[in-house]
Specification:
It comes from Rubrivivax rivuli. 67% of the residues lie in helices and 0% in strands. It has 138 residues and is mainly alpha-helical. The chain has one domain.
Length: 138
């Protein structure tokens, strides 16, 4: 698995890529959502860079033998911790979590794999209080 500098646009985009593949399908609705919200720009990437990162992330998963669609998450615990560990900035963590929640809800159903990634982000990044605060504002 490739590594990226801490808090880099690539590290952030890979968290979104993990959310995209977590349900076992890279759906048109998810790709359209990424374009509609210009997520690539929000992360500091060109559109083609975000799409290339999605491709290389899938390649990394396939080459490492981790891409098993029957699992609740396409990566093991250590890899998941490494990916989450590349994001240290509290504001970036919160921004990514919010984007990942929206992304997971695009197809009107949060899959088990997507839920696993979202819960992992909350736990790894210590965003329990932020999630409670968000749920009280709805």
């Amino acid at each position: 698995m490739r590594s990226y500098p801490t808090n880099s646009p690539q590290a952030a985009a890979r968290i979104l890529a993990l959310t995209v593949v977590a349900d076992g399908d890279i759906g048109d609705a998810e790709l359209q959502w990424l374009d509609r919200l210009a997520v690539h720009e929000r992360l500091g990437l060109a559109r083609h860079e975000l799409l290339a990162l999605l491709d290389t992330f899938c390649e990394d998963l396939l080459s490492s033998g981790q891409l098993k669609w029957a699992d609740a998450c396409p990566v093991d615990e250590r890899t998941l911790a490494d990916l989450m560990g590349e994001i240290q900035d509290p504001a970036l963590r919160l921004k990514l979590l919010r984007l990942c929640v929206e992304l997971a809800e695009v197809d009107t159903r949060v899959d088990d794999g997507e839920s696993f990634v979202l819960v992992a982000a909350v736990e790894h990044w210590g965003l329990h209080h932020e999630m409670l605060r968000s749920s009280h504002q709805d």
